[in-house]
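HOLO CASE FILE
Compound: G5P
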Amino acid sequence: MAARLLRAAVLGPPGSGKGTVSQRVAHSFGLQHLSSGRFLRDSLRAGSGHGAKPLARRGQETSWPFRPTVPSTPVLSGWTSAESLLPASPLPLPLFVPFGPTEVGHMARQYLEKGLLVPDHVITRLMMSELELRSDQHWLLDGFPRTIGQAEALDRVCDLDLVISLNIPFETLKDRLSRRWVHLPSGRVYNLDFNPPLVPGVDDVTGEPLVQQEDDRPDAVAARLRRYKDAAKPVIELYRRRGVLHQFSGTETNKIWPYVHNLFSSKLAPLQSKDTN
Ligand code: G5P
Ligand code: MG
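Model generated. Tokens follow.
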């Protein structure tokens, strides 16, 4: 019997540790780490409409191209066959506006620069393209879905098996973000306490300067957190009702991590112990 592919997501406010936890999960379990923020930044940088190839024109319908295959990582018992992931009959593709090659980057830039959520139709379009490329792998979404509209779009292509919600106190988030420095070309993130660069103010890999982003200022952070809460509440409720939500509260990622590792271990055989991160 073919094994099923794991579909997971990490939700949480800005600075809650989504990226840090996702990187550890990806490293420990061999999942693809798919960060919506990272894809957006890539599309801005490349100016090449990352993931923007048209899937369908408005009004066209085609069968959904997801066809999961047996994953390379062993899956533990309690999982059903890959066939169970396939729709009983071909699903119509979500109808996306056919963006041109550079449009995702152009449309997202103004929102990213202000720390605002990118409109659902832009981010959904981008993420669906990326998911399509990885239909035969286990994956973990980082920062998507963030609104109920995005969750509904994701529902049209798959069911999430595991959703982690990071519940971190506001003061902790404010402190973390105000001590965060970024290497813009790569998206590498440093924190002056948690993972400082080897040389202050300089990226470890390239030696290029690090910057502090406008939306990491304390007043901007407060507004971002409020917006997050409003948009995320119905998403969290949706996954809670479905019985796939696992909420973790705390102020330190290192303390939350062993629980997250245990949770994923109940679904996938680890490649690395939790202590190797
Ligand atoms: P992103 O890129 O998803 P945010 O703002 O949601 O960005 P961010 O900033 O990436 O979230 P995170 O991934 O939750 O935070 O957290 P992280 O980077 O792992 O940790 C934050 C900092 O704290 C780091 O410096 C880390 O080292 C440190 N840290 C972690 N754990 C600890 C700890 O235990 N102790 C300490 N001291 N430090 C720690 O999205 C960017 C933008 O893209 C758009 C939006 O405009 C968004 O603002 N976007 C979307 N728009 C609409 N819909 C979507 N689905 C979108 N996705 C992205
Ligand atoms: Mg992140």
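CASE NOTES: The radius of gyration is 19 Å. The helical segments are 18-29, 36-46, 103-114, 120-133, 148-155, 170-178, 218-242, 253-265.
CLOSED: yes
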